[in-house]
UniProtKB/TrEMBL annotation:
This is lysozyme. It catalyses: Hydrolysis of (1->4)-beta-linkages between N-acetylmuramic acid and N-acetyl-D-glucosamine residues in a peptidoglycan and between N-acetyl-D-glucosamine residues in chitodextrins. PROSITE patterns: LYSOZYME_I. Residues 1-17 form the signal peptide. Disulfide bonds join C160-C237, C163-C269, C165-C171, C176-C186, C199-C219, C209-C215, C233-C251. It comes from Dreissena polymorpha.
């Protein structure tokens, strides 16, 4: 009889431990023991009241917090919100319950090969604002691919080209946008047909050139060389960036200051 009781207790303890692990990704412990940077949750472990589930705070859970959500088992109701996959650590049925919708403009981040996440999380490249839904600290992390790119040499430095490339497209060839006048711009540097003609029409056509890193960076170099003396813009990255944004006289136009300030906010471009 004693053996049977022991077996039953063992099974119950295994079940409670599994519930703590499966539902919360935690471990059953006595609350007198520190929970190593996490916190205890009652009701997931058998035994006395001080035996609770220790769940560590993780980077994955901070993704859920970034959209004002809570990680929990999907068997629990998500009152007033919906569940989002991939924002919580632990088993697949532990998901993020949030009232914030993370669809919509998130596809713009994916178009530049980025991932929407909290800006407080590490990012191997840099963050771009305005491409993700949710709170302001939920931004698009674009991996650093500049080291893999081969820019055409010229008067604009490689570092400056890299920063313009990151700002314009996240250094992605796939992004195309249309401005208020209906003019389409594409590729690494968001080149449009007029810009392409002004840079000497390298490559087969403007769109294929815009999507080729060598051709598009050559176009930028040609454009800056051709318009080097226009408005006496300085031969600095600021002069080139503002000219790229506002045309030959862009460096003298106050409307290009926000573009330059945004470029300097990109990690690695602060002192360009």
């Amino acid at each position: 009889m004693l053996v049977m009781v022991t077996v039953v207790v063992f099974i119950l303890n295994e079940t409670s431990a599994d519930r703590c692990k499966d539902f919360l990704g935690g471990v059953c412990r006595d609350t007198s023991t520190p929970c190593d940077g996490g916190r205890y949750h009652a009701g997931f472990c058998d035994g006395q009241a001080n035996r609770q589930c220790c769940v560590h705070d993780t980077t994955g859970d901070s993704e859920c917090k970034a959209i004002l959500g809570v990680c929990q088992d999907i068997s629990s109701p998500c009152t007033g919100g919906i569940y989002h996959e991939g924002l919580c650590t632990g088993p697949v049925h532990r998901q993020c319950c949030s009232r914030v919708k993370v669809t919509g403009t998130d596809h713009r981040c994916k178009e530049v090969s980025g991932v929407c996440q909290s800006k407080f999380n590490p990012c191997s490249g840099g963050y771009i604002t305005g491409l993700c839904t949710g709170p302001s600290d939920r931004q698009c992390c674009v991996p650093d691919t500049e080291s893999e790119l081969h820019f055409f040499p010229g008067r604009v430095s490689r570092d400056c080209l890299g920063c313009i490339c990151k700002l314009e497209s996240g250094c992605s060839p796939t992004v195309c946008n249309t401005n208020d006048m209906g003019l389409e711009s594409c590729g690494y540097f968001q080149i449009n047909p007029i810009y392409w003609i002004d840079c000497g029409k390298p490559g087969k056509d403007w769109k294929s050139c815009a999507r080729d890193i060598q051709c598009s960076s050559q176009c930028v170099q040609n454009y800056m060389t051709r318009n080097a003396r226009e408005q006496r813009c300085s031969g600095t990255c600021e002069g080139y960036a503002r000219k790229h944004n506002g045309g030959p006289g862009g460096c003298k136009n106050d409307s290009t200051f926000p573009y330059w300030n945004k470029l300097k906010s990109i990690p690695g471009c602060e002192n360009i």
